From TrEMBL:
A Gene Ontology term for the protein's cellular component: plasma membrane
Species lineage: Archaea, Methanobacteriati, Methanobacteriota, Stenosarchaea group, Halobacteria
Record protein name field: Probable branched-chain amino acid transport ATP-binding protein LivG
This protein's UniProt keywords: Amino-acid transport, ATP-binding, Nucleotide-binding, Transport
All residue ranges annotated as the ABC transporter domain in the record: 5-254
Organism name: Halorientalis regularis
General function of this protein: Probable component of a branched-chain amino-acid transport system.
InterPro entries: AAA+_ATPase, ABC_AA/LPS_Transport, ABC_transporter-like_ATP-bd, ABC_transporter-like_CS, BCA_ABC_TP_C, P-loop_NTPase
Gene3D superfamilies to which the protein is assigned, alphabetical: P-loop containing nucleotide triphosphate hydrolases
PROSITE patterns (UniProt xref): ABC_TRANSPORTER_1 (PS00211), ABC_TRANSPORTER_2 (PS50893)
Family: Belongs to the ABC transporter superfamily.
Length: 256
């Protein structure tokens, strides 16, 4: 097992509210890990702490950057720094430029990985290495046929694929997905699950997701973390977590 992301006593208070309460956890590169919990459980806050959008009020989060075997503290760093270290986040924070094509969006993501200040001339510049990297991501995500489509004309399913492709474009070691199947119909949901599983098999990227659809969670996850009132109340395989009494009570209202 290789730990790629870990937290130690991670805590975030908003005034008196403990949104993330003393969470210590290691995420392993071999697993697709889902983070679940009722509304307000602290999932988004936890993601914000991992990705540098929020600083913890106590504790620490660490990441193993790509091509490194040392853990680096992410807490206290800016989101762009955390991203450059190898953690990418897709969804909720919608960073697709609707008026640009899929390819153009991917070129921007790739260029912004290298330079914090985006030089828009570089997006249009003939750069064979950049084109090759973009083509690779288009192929991995099955977006070749819509590469030249302006994003506002994409189907909902393809638009969400673009958000994953943008996350992949920065060469991450870990990708955090925010509810990848939200708003999707059954067919789109199935395709999204297949895509994440394929990417997980084909790459050495570690995928972590939050998701409300329990069928998706149980189908895709090797491991599930359950948050409730900011606290990590369960951590295990889908079978272990579903058998956990506290999870049933907190998350499923004690349903058999
Ligand atoms: N910026 C903030 N200021 C004050 N309270 C906040 C802030 N952000 C989140 N909270 C509170 O922290 C708690 C955890 O919220 P969070 O959004 O992390 O939960 P969540 O599990 O992502 O919920 P959901 O599934 O509804 O998105 C909630 O009680 C929320 O109201």
């Amino acid at each position: 097992m290789t730990t790629v992301l870990e937290t130690e006593g991670l805590e975030r208070r908003f005034g008196k509210l403990l949104a993330v309460d003393d969470v210590t956890v290691s995420i392993e590169s071999e697993d697709i890990t889902s983070i679940i919990g009722p509304n307000g459980a602290g999932k988004t806050t936890f993601y914000n702490l991992l990705s540098g959008r929020l600083d913890p009020t106590d504790g620490v989060a660490r990441l193993q950057p790509r091509d490194s075997d040392e853990m680096v503290t992410v807490s206290g760093r800016e989101p762009y720094e955390v991203n450059r270290l190898g953690l990418s986040r897709a969804f909720q924070i919608n960073n697709v430029f609707d008026g640009l094509t899929v390819s153009e969006n991917l070129r921007i993501a790739r260029i912004s990985k290298n330079d914090r200040t985006l030089d828009l001339r570089a997006v249009a510049r003939d750069d064979p290495a950049l084109t090759e990297q973009v083509n690779e991501v288009l192929e991995m995500t099955g977006l070749q046929s819509v590469a030249d489509t302006v994003c506002e004309n994409l189907s909902h399913g393809d638009k969400r694929k673009v958000e994953i492709a943008l996350a992949l474009g920065t060469d991450p070691s870990v990708v955090l997905l925010d509810e990848p199947t939200a708003g999707m119909n059954a067919t789109e949901t199935e395709k999204m699950v297949e895509l994440v599983e394929d990417l997980d098999n084909q790459t050495d990227i570690t995928f972590v997701l939050t998701e409300h659809d329990m069928d998706v969670v149980l189908g895709i996850s090797d491991r599930i973390l359950v948050l409730d009132n900011g606290e990590l109340i369960a951590d295990g395989t889908p079978d272990e977590v579903m058998a956990n009494e506290r999870v049933r009570e907190a998350y499923l209202g004690g349903e058999p």
